[in-house]
Amino acid sequence: MISTARVPADKPVRIAFSLNDASDDTPPEDSIPLVFPELDQQLQPLPPCHDSAESMQVFKQHCQIAEEYHEVKKEIALLEERKKELIAKLDQAEKEKVDAAQLVREFEALTEENRTLKLAQSQCVEQLEKLRIQYQKRQGSS
Questions:
Q1: What are 40-81's pLDDT values in tens digits?
Q2: Cβ distance 38 to 9 under 8 Å?
Q3: Residue 139, number of CB atoms within 10 A of its CB
Q4: pLDDT tier at 11, thresholds 50, 70, 90
């Protein structure tokens, strides 16, 4: 007899088999619950013929393959999630790189403007000093 239970998708699935538990009161095929509820119907292991060791072996192999398939699907989902996280980080890094490049351009422009303003200020100071000297000469000569 095979017993089944619903297990959350993130929990590992373990299946136990016993060829000695075969009984004649097996339920009809339609009422056997799905061994792997997350699998499509066509991928579900078919119930074995309990009188045949070969059928039980095929069922066991099918269940192992279904369990591996489930694990691979979980791993793919995790990897896809990680891919999304990495893409988001890459987008953020590129945005920060663009922001940094913009800040560098702004810094260079402000540095140039500062240099120009300092030059203008020194020229104004020189011109003011010349005007003071001229004014003092006029005051002294009058």
A1: 888 888 888 889 999 999 999 998 998 899 899 999 999 999
A2: yes
A3: 8
A4: low
Both tokens assigned to 90? 């890459």
**Residue pair 37/66 in contact by the 8 Å Cβ criterion:** no
What the block records as the tokens of 17 is 């088999």
Sign of the C-alpha dihedral computed for residues 70, 12, 17 and 51 taken in this order: negative
Question: CA 23 from chain center: how many Å?
Answer: 49
The answer to whether residues 35 and 44 touch, using CB atoms and an 8 Å cutoff, is: yes
- Token reading at 60: 């066991």
Beta strands, E only, 4-142: none
Report the chain's terminal Cα–Cα distance, integer Å.
128
The percentage of residues in the chain with a pLDDT greater than 70, rounded to a whole number, is 75
User: Please, which contacts does 51-58 make with residues 24 or more away whose CB atoms are closer than 8 Å?
Assistant: 51/22, 53/19, 56/17, 56/19
Asked if 36 and 75 touch (Cβ cutoff 8 Å), the reply is no
pTM over 0.70: no
Q: What are phi and psi of 115, to 5 degrees?
A: -60, -45
